[in-house]
Amino acid sequence: MEADFMRGGPVAGGERGAEDLAGRDERLTGRDEQLAAIDAALAGITGAGTSVLLRGDPGMGKTALLKVAETKARDAGLRVLRMTGAEAEAGLPFAALHQVLWPLLDDTQALSVEQRDALESALGVREGMPPEGFTVAGAALTLLAHAAARRPVVVLLDDLQWADPSSVAVFGYLRRHLAPLPVVLVGATRHAGHPSSETHAPEENGDAESLPGRVIDLEPLDERQAKRLLRTLHPWLPDTTHRRVLRAAGGNPLALRELPAQIRRVAPDHPALLAAPATADGTETFDELPLGTRLGSLYEDGLRALPDSTRRMLLVAAVGGSFAQRVSALRDMARDGVTTPWTEIHRRIDASGLARVDLMRDLLLFHHPLVRACLVHIASPAERRAAHRLLARALPAASPQRITHLAAATVGTDARLAELLHAQADGMAAQGGDAEAAGMMARAAGLSPDPATRAARLVAASGMAARGGRLRLAVELLAGAEAEARPEKPEPAAPYAFALAYTRLQLDGDPTPALELLPGALELPASPEGREHRAGLLEPMLFMLIVVAVHTGDERAWAAVDRHAGDATEPAALCRRAWAGPCPDQGAAGARAGAAPTVDPDDVPQRLREAVAALPPDRETPAAWLLLWAAAAIDAVGEHAELASPFVRHHAFATQAFIESLRAHDDFLHGRWDASLATARDGAKTSAAHGYAFNEMLFLHNAGQVLAARGDGEALAALEPVLGQAARERNMLRVAERLHGLRALCALGHGRAEDAWDHARSLTAPGVIPPRSAWFHLSLVDWIQAAVDSGHRPDALRHLRAVRAAGTARASAHHAFLVAVAEALAGEDGADQPFEAVYAFPGAERWPFPLARARLAHGARLRRRGLYGPAAARCRAALDTFTRLGTAPWAAQAARELDAMRAESEPPDETPPSHPLLSAQESRIAELAAQGLTNRQIGERLGLSPRTIGAHLYKVFPKLGITTRAGIARALEETRADVAQGGSRGASQPSGSALASAAREEIPSLGKIR
Questions:
Q1: pLDDT per residue over 744-764, tens digit each?
Q2: 689: how many CB neighbours lie within 10 A of its CB?
Q3: d(Cα 860, Cα 814) in Å, to the nearest integer?
Q4: Which of the chain's termini has less CB crowding within 10 Å, N or C?
């Protein structure tokens, strides 16, 4: 489920169309030149006729551009005539012209008798002898001119390569005579050299350059454009499959749109498509790539027209990667696999236009990557297996590619081959290639004759898929393992528990399997094999348990982590310490066995720097995951960006989304709120659309932080279904608690101290630091300010004593800074030193929001002491920060303080007179209330209790004829207009109200995110 403020309407499920995700503009990525040419032609239609011919391979976007032209023409009130060529009608004279002129046939009375007879005979309206072509062309031009005289005409000609020759001749005539007419002709055709094109396309008349129009070639999208389009249309696509689609599509927009949709359609039955392994030489095969009808037909006719032997060798080159595209290797395989001489195959390949042989480079080059995919698409299973057998025979015995091709060529089971694949998958996983290894291990399971071995390999494959972020694939593999093992649970138990727990957490947001299965899986099994599985998964299982413990607070998870962290490596122990927080009673004795004795076990930042430096460069490992999560615990993800790089490059959406959520949080902490909110919005929308419940929750949590800080209570309330109700139902109690903290922050922004205090107390009682509460420090400043502003300073001081005893400030620099800000807020009004300590904190500017809040609070206290110069400096600095961050309520608070300083610092003779209906004391209280001060703040100023202030205001309201506090300022202003003696304020500095007005202009409107 996704909060309403994020969706702007219901979100479809996982089958969302490309248009829903991308919008109209993205569908024509990389086609700016063509769109500009169409726009220019349409814009100038009344001045002169012209033509634009779009030329390109199938799927390059020609039809989409014509649709855009049609929409724009109709929107402009132009008349549109259309034609779409059809291969079946290519031999029917004037069939294409008939489509264009049919809507105009009622106007043939405007033609001469000769022209009318010729045109109607050509179009089959009347019987008669076939007319001469130029007579028909002249008649068509006259009829078109007659129609254009009433309303400009746009003629759209699609698939001109299949238009009949007679119509093509007429269209060519029209193009040469458009100049004096308000007519625009936009055509689309394939390149003349394309295997499916004919030789009568209109641009081939030899004088295309002299025509009053443009011929524009549609080239494949470049790599940047292709990646952008693919990520926009299909953000769910696993990274390995993303690379495979990019390579197969070759910049073809239709392929970029259709291939992932076809993969998604068949993925439930063929999950390995989402984790297709790369070949050993770095290339990827096209075996079993689902093209669907549209893509599969692009080159089918040309391929089926080839002799069997030629098509078979092209298929070998298509599935064999770079090895099979070497002409020398292909020639040797041809001698072994077909009877046709290589010279004849070579000649046929070059003549087809589908590929060519480059003898100088010893390479066979396909016309387009989709030719390779179409070869596999139209081949029968037997033909594909034969190609793989031929490749396996040609490769060296020790080649990993040979094993892959043998597996693809094998029908049924083969225990020995399964063992080879198993070993190869293990080696790939050991090198950090879990995602790719999963597909290989799944194939090893399929080749295994024994059900128990088959189930064990499916379990291993599911664990690899889970660690590699291929969650849907992992679910399919788990289901297969469970089916093989029934009525028992699949073995080995540890990998099964990990894969099940991880997929359920990510897809359903359900931590229950992790809490119920992983602690038992971590217990040392009796068998050597069990110990080996447990050792290999120790770090991944600990990582997952720490993630679950942080979000649930469940002691089962923490107890398991505590019990087994001592067996783990430094990254696991460090991650546990980072999230559990400093332990003042443990001291140096808490160091993990083997840790350097000179390193303070509670100095997590230093230990993290050392551990990161010890990692293998640019390589994903379980240790890197643990260290990245440890960095998140101490709010230092941005300081260790190198940890995330391998994951982002090599992983699927689920994994990348988790990392993006950490970066969004880092952006929030460091004042990059617009970036944080944009990442959170996009991530939550995509996660919800594709069923990643846990990541959706993480993104919405990040969005909530920005919304609360900006005071957008309505949008924050919209997060309750996910961060409140659903989180509690899923036992994600720490997430629900964090929402209470965000409500406190939102209330503080609007000056509702009592509301903020109610929310703060629901988090924890005064003086109680929740054990292992991961996000406690993020609400610390809010808790303290809510206590102080609501008149509960003793509770604030008691709480800070507990914070100091817990050693919270030792966790990280950010923790220490927040504690310093909280100490300053809880201090006495005359205490400047705590605030000066905040300003002097090393790197304080890294965290602009709490720094600005400290400046605002300090400025208010300085004002109450009459120190207006320093107070104004603090408040103006705070106002600048709040304005830049886009938080209107906090900016308004700073502006009110500046207004109050202006009013209090005016000369006595400029002080507004008392209200005629109020006593002097009531007037003074009313003036201060109008400035936005709370009852407690007014009482501190005048030496009265908040209760006394409330009693005075109770009398003031009826005297002024108002019912709310908000009406005080207006009532007083009306009185000044009647009785004041005038006098300019004469200020050389802008007032706080003016600054607030300027701030509001700079701050984007709040409310729901669209």
A1: 999 999 999 999 999 999 989
A2: 21
A3: 25
A4: C
